[in-house]
């Protein structure tokens, strides 16, 4: 039995993946949550035997048959389901027998543990960042006051002396005071409210690509664009999004260039796709934009993965540890989230931003 339109809309609004199987364990319906989890559409999944969708699933199939035969619900925690293309997902699932018009079906609910962990990690990161930001603001105030005094004293001293060499020394003091002042401002973050307008993410990324390719650090690094042209505009601040994405691309370039011998065939991929049924903190979005910045550098050290978005955390001796926190702040102000997955030769920074869906889009 396939749900009618109103029930389908209700099921598609769930964060839980829902599968309906007939007595032969063939798929009759999957909701949008299941489409996202299993990376398959309802139309392609229709009438597939569950064993064709889930690989090496003898235990899961046995549990579904047992639930149908005995008329009982079966729940399993932390099950690893193996999909095609060598993908695996970690879920809790519940099997419920369902009878309608004399036909017995299996209603399977899938709850992604990775999804829940990602939401929890983002909430922890946001809370930690807010605490850190308050500390930094207090520290910035204490630093900028004496910096102003140092700069003012250097200017007065410069006006009282005639020797060129001494002027050079006072100018060094002024320049370094300005540099520290700018550094503190970057630590604190953007001072101005973001100006949200309809923004084409591909125009943003093309600008980022051109700026990166003009940088000498991109020598021998191939920057590749893989865009989904169907993605609509989003409400965003184009200039700040350029800054956020450029930070990610420069971070990738620095990673590729950071090891000896140098990475052969350095590669950065800018990839855009539509993501569906996404939760960002406490908000749920039917449709969102996902931007992946992928590089083939040495990767982020495992011990740094949980802290790379905190201020002053850097894996490079010359790094300030400000680029990624600034990016996180900008994405956060856009109502989005950012995460990183990394292993040697394959690092992916994923930015997810909500899209405004019109009635026509949401059909």
As laid out across the biggest beta sheet, the strand order is 2-1-5-4-3
**Over all CA atoms, what is the radius of gyration?**
26 Å
Number of DSSP helices? 10
Mean pLDDT, as a whole number?
83
What structural class is derived from the secondary structure elements?
Answer: alpha+beta
| Number of E-type strands | 12
Task: Profile the largest sheet.
Answer: 5 strands, antiparallel
Which bin fits the share of residues in helices?
40-55%
CATH topology of the largest domain: Heat Shock Protein 90
Our estimate of the beta-strand percent is: 25-35%
CATH class bucket of the largest domain: Alpha Beta
Low-confidence spans: 358-363
What is the correct CATH architecture of the largest domain? 2-Layer Sandwich
Shape: elongated
User: Order of SSEs, N→C?
Assistant: HEEHHHHEEEHHEHEEHEEHEE
Taking the alpha carbons of the first and last residues, their distance comes to 21 Å
Q: How many individual domains?
A: 3
Q: Any idea what the CATH superfamily of the largest domain is called?
A: Histidine kinase-like ATPase, C-terminal domain
């Amino acid at each position: 039995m396939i749900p009618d339109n109103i029930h389908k809309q209700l099921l598609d609004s769930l964060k839980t993946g829902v599968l309906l199987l007939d007595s032969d364990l063939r798929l009759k319906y999957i909701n949008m949550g299941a489409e996202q989890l299993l990376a398959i559409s309802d139309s392609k999944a229709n009438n597939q035997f569950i064993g064709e969708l889930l690989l090496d699933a003898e235990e899961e199939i046995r549990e579904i048959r047992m639930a149908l035969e005995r008329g009982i619900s079966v729940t399993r925690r932390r099950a690893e389901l193996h999909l095609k293309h060598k993908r695996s997902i970690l879920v809790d699932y519940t099997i419920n027998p369902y009878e309608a018009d004399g036909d017995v079906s299996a209603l399977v609910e899938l709850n992604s543990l990775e999804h829940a962990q990602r939401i929890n990690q983002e909430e922890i990161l946001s809370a930690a960042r807010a605490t850190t930001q308050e500390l930094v603001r207090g520290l910035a105030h204490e630093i900028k006051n004496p910096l102003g005094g140092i700069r003012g004293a250097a200017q007065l001293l410069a006006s009282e002396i005639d020797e060129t060499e001494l002027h050079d020394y006072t100018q060094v003091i002024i320049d370094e005071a300005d540099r520290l002042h700018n550094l503190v401002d970057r630590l604190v973050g953007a001072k101005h409210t973001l100006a949200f307008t309809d923004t084409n993410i591909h125009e943003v990324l093309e600008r980022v690509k051109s700026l990166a390719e003009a940088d000498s650090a991109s020598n021998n690094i191939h920057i590749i664009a893989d865009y989904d042209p169907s993605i609509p505009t989003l409400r965003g601040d184009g200039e700040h999004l350029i800054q956020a994405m450029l930070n990610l691309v420069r971070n990738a370039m620095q990673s590729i260039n950071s090891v000896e011998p140098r990475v052969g065939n350095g590669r950065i991929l800018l990839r855009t796709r539509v993501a569906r049924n996404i939760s960002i903190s406490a908000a749920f979005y039917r449709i969102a934009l996902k931007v992946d910045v992928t590089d083939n550098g040495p990767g982020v050290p495992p011990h740094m993965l949980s802290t790379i978005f905190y201020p002053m955390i850097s894996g490079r001796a010359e790094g300030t540890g400000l680029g990624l926190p600034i990016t996180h702040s900008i994405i956060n102000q856009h109502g989005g989230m950012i995460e990183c997955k990394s292993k040697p030769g394959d690092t992916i920074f994923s930015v997810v931003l909500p899209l405004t869906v019109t009635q026509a889009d949401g059909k």
